[in-house]
């Protein structure tokens, strides 16, 4: 059974986590005087928690199955590391609102393209005026966030 409302609530909460995580990581970066080290610490803590959760849920064999996954399926960690480091580095320069607007714009542009081509086994979704307007509105919000 699917619960789209509950799922949307969890995704919204994840968005709140991203907004809160970024300035916390930026503060850590200032404290340790290295955005890269702060990102590594953040990833390290996340790795430990996710590993413990996987083991606690009895899903440890998934780690063994991952060895046979295609190489490109391993690139998510690279992308995540780039995201975390970029946010730690950019927040002192842009501020939280502008950085998160730019992040959202990048996510929406990528999502439109990924949906359009049906990337990674996702269903293909048409490019539409409302979707393009959503991207333009977020782009406008990015511009307005600097004034």
Throw out a few tags for this protein.
6 helices, mainly alpha, 78% helix
How does this structure look, described?
Helix content is 78%, strand content 0%. With 147 residues, it is mostly helical. Helix 2 crosses helix 4. The mean pLDDT is 93.
Write the layout of secondary structure elements.
Blueprint: H1 4-32, H2 35-56, H3 61-66, H4 76-94, H5 96-117, H6 129-144
Helix pairs in contact: 1-2, 1-4, 2-4, 4-5, 5-6
The proportion of strand residues reads under 5%
Which residues sit in consecutive blocks of at least 5 with pLDDT less than 50?
A: none
Number of helices: 6
* C-alpha end-to-end distance: 45 Å
Shape: globular
Structural class: mainly alpha
Residues in helices, as a percent range: over 70%
Number of strands: 0
* Mean pLDDT reading: 93
Biggest sheet features: none
* SSE pattern: HHHHHH
Radius of gyration based on Cα positions: 18 Å
Summarize the structure.
The protein has 147 residues and is mainly α.
């Amino acid at each position: 059974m699917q619960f789209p409302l509950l799922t949307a609530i969890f995704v919204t909460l994840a968005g709140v986590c991203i907004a809160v995580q970024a300035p916390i990581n930026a503060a850590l970066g200032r404290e340790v005087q290295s955005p890269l080290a702060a990102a590594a610490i953040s990833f390290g803590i996340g790795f430990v928690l996710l590993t413990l959760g996987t083991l606690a849920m009895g899903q440890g064999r998934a780690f063994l199955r991952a060895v046979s996954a295609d190489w490109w399926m391993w690139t998510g960690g690279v992308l995540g590391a780039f995201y975390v480091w970029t946010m730690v580095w950019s927040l002192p320069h842009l501020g939280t609102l502008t950085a998160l607007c730019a992040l959202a714009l990048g996510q929406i542009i990528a999502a439109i393209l990924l949906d359009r081509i049906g990337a990674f086994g996702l269903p293909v979704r048409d490019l539409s005026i409302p979707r393009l307007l959503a991207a333009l509105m977020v782009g406008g919000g990015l511009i307005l966030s600097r004034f």
